[in-house]
Structures are given as C-alpha cells and as structure tokens.
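Entry 14. Structure prediction run on the chain below.
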Amino acid sequence: MVPSQTLRPVLFAIALGLCASGAQAADMFSPPPPTKIAPSAQEDWYLTIGASGQVEPTYPGADEYSVRPSLIFSVRKGSQLDEFQSVDDNPSIALFDTGSFRLGVVGRLDWGRDADDSFRLTGLGDVDMAVEAGGFAEWYITDWFRTRAELRYGMGGFEGVRGLLAADVILPYGQWRFAIGPRLTYGGSGFMQTYFGVTPAQAALATALGNPLPVYNAGSGFDLVGATAQLTYNFRNGFEAGVFGSYGRLLGDAASSPLTADENQFMAGLSLSYTFNIGKAWW
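Output returned:
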C-alpha cells in the first residue's frame, strides 16, 4: 500500500495537468480576444472614411428598389479601434467619451424623392435632398451589446425631426465580426407629411393627371420597426469590408398612406472603409 503522504503530491500534479489540458482544449474552440489598446490622455486619434452601396426602396413606402451610395465617417481614439461600429451608423464624431458611453454630433443626407419614381407620385412634385444634423448617444452595456440613439433635424427637402433607436448583439471571431439587432425610427410631422401626406393641392393635381389621390394628413410618430444584420472582415491593414441587410415594416400613418405601395421595406448592401492615424487631438 502507498502511503497517503506520497499520493497527495502525485494526485495534485495529475489534477494540475488535467486542468491545463482542459484549458488548452477550450482555447482551441474559443475565438481569439480582440487586441485592445490601453486608454491614454495622449493617445492618437484615428479617422475612418469609406462608402457603402445598398439596394433600398426608391422612396419610403415604395415597392421598387434603387442602388444608392452612403458615406462612412467617424473619428475615434486609438483605444476604441476595436469597438463595434454598425454599417448603418450615420457619420458621427464623439465629443464626450468615457469608453463605454459616448455623446456627440451626427449627420445624414436624405436623397429626396422624384415624382417620376412611381405613378403613385404623379402630381406630387419632387422632394429635394435634405441635410440632417443632430446628436447621438451610444452605450456599450457590455463588450457584446451596444445601444445607440440619434436625434436629427432635417433641412431642405423636408423640415422636421428624425430619430433612431438601435441595439446590436455583437459576436466577434478573430478578424470577423457578426452583429444583429432591432431598429426603430421616428418621423416628425414635417418628415411624415412630406413623404406620406397628400395636400389638397396635390390631390387635385394628381387626380387631374389621372392619379386619383385623397387628401391625407400624416402625423408624427414611429414610422418603421425592423432589424439589421451585418458581417464585417477586418484586414488589419486599415481596411474593413462588410455585407449587411435589413428588414423594416412601416407603422402608423406611414403604413396607411395612399402613397405606400408596400409596408415591407428591405435593404442590402456592401461597405468598404479605411482607418488611418491623424495624430494627437488639436482640441
């Protein structure tokens, strides 16, 4: 019989070996953690610029689709380079940043609408391009769950408020990153009436041109709910490519508008961006 005093160190060594081999096996099936840069007051800032092209409804509520470009633009500190950015985030700059919570300015271009985009729009006239500017707030509740809100005011083709609420579950694996989450948009009365309303003058002209439309007042409210999914690949040389798709369903006055041909709205696209060092902050 082997004395217990002799068995104890042997058993302890075996247990350590099993733990180590188990940890190695687990590591084989675990995604490598992203490389993080320690925050510093003197760290460099990085500019991300790029573009995406997406197939989307020709106008809000349309059942026909067009290809449109979109701008990718953001400014981040070096410690934030591994943080998730959605392909449908509007161009933004953070002015206040704690690492997990950010506040800043955001902008967007609304491309407007042409009366010849659909027979349903005959007699309504064109909607010119609008510039939207406002603020955003972003909160990383955990490393894998982000929430974002935007509130913008449009000027030009329409005058009014636009809002966005978004959340994303983020699943990284090495240079790949998959994310999916809900979207909810808000339209003020100026936006809603421009895109979904019909004035008495428009109704009269449309009817005279063979497009009988009733007078329709579209009020403010949440106009679309849906979800966005995306897959990106970071080449680790500054470039990042992505593919994305979204589904949305029109709500309220937007869904009930006589101009709406389809309450189901789809979008899909590709993106490419490049990030480079712009040095220390001058501000």
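The chain has a mean pLDDT of 86.
Filed with the rest of this week's runs.
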